Every structure is written in C-alpha cells, then in structure tokens.
Target: O-GlcNAc transferase C-terminal domain-containing protein
Amino acid sequence: MQDLQLLATIEPYAEGEGDAAILAGHARSLHRRFATAGARRHRSRETEGRTRMSILSPGLGRHPVGWLTLAGLERLPEEGFDLIVCSQRGFEDPLDRRFRALAAEWRDVPAGLTDHDLAEWLRARDLDLLLEMGGHGEGGRVSCLRHRPAPVAVKWVGAQSATTGVPGVAWMLTDARETPAGFEPHYTEQLLRLPDGYVCYTPPPYARPPSRPCRP
Model:
C-alpha cells in the first residue's frame, strides 16, 4: 500500500502524470486494498447538545495547514464543540499554541504509533466527527481512518490535491474552484462544496493590510 500512497503524494506534481483520472485510479486501488484490512465499526453515542470533534494533522502550527484552518476553528462556538486534537508536529510555535488553546484534549502522536492503535485511541474519545488534515502527504495519517474511529470523517486541507481513496472518509470539504462540477467520478468521497471558499486564511502578524481588489 505504501507504493500507492507515495504515488498519490508525488504524482500531482509530475507533468503529464498527475491528472484526475490517473490519481483516481491509484485511489481506487488503495480503496480496494484498505477495504480488506479488517475495518471496525465505531459505536454510536448521544451527543447531549455538544459535538465532539477530533482534528488529525501534522500541520497545526506555522505550516500551510495551520495558516489555512486556524481562523475557522477559532470561530467555532465554544459552547457547541469539544475539540480533541491529535498533532504530529512534535514542537511548538505561536500558531501551535493557538491551536492548543482551542483543545479540550491534546495528544502529540508518537511517530511509531500504528494506524490501528491511533484509531483505537480516537475511538475511545467517543467522537461525533473527525477532520483529517494531512492526507497521504508528509506525516499524514489518513490511512488510520479505514478503521473508522468516528461516525463521520471529513477530509479538509493538507495534501488535498486528489481523493484519498480511504474507506471511512465520507466527505471532502472543498469549493467550486478547488473541485469544479463534474469531477465527482474522480473521488471516493462525497464533495461538500462551501459557497465562497473552503479555507480560512490567517495572515502572519507582519502582513500588510489587504488592498482593494483590482477590477478589469
């Protein structure tokens, strides 16, 4: 399976080798292999008015994933969500500390932890929803979602150049520019398109104020 995961990571950047049909073919092959890996069903629970949501990512800090997701997560209503964060970075920075401030529970995931054991830890958190933000890219652990540690798993940002091909990832959060209409056959996930944009940029403190958009 590692060969297919590697192809899914690097082929989007290979000229003539990274079109949607080729990437979808790799993903379907991954899907078939993962589907035979003994996926275990989650157990359901009553939410009691709060949503328990896990974030799984190697980029929660000064990283493209951090810059493109923090603002959205900071605007979640505090009274409605408990955030269970699994980070694979292993070091802190100013953006990392802002993510930590949001977490009801934080875990730094050891590099050697197996997909099965990570999924079991997540399942024990009694989740309603899981956001995966790493894909098959460096440090990504999307493959653990074949064990279905949460009732609903959503792919968002982080190596989002193509479908994951992982059973158990039900949705991909996107928009009409990132994934235009008609691309659905190239995805094993259902595409959940936001109306304006699928990311929420947090500028660094030294950034200048945005200027007015240029008009044609």
Remarks:
- The longest helix spans residues 20-35.
- Helices lie at 2-10, 20-35, 64-74, 94-102, 115-123.
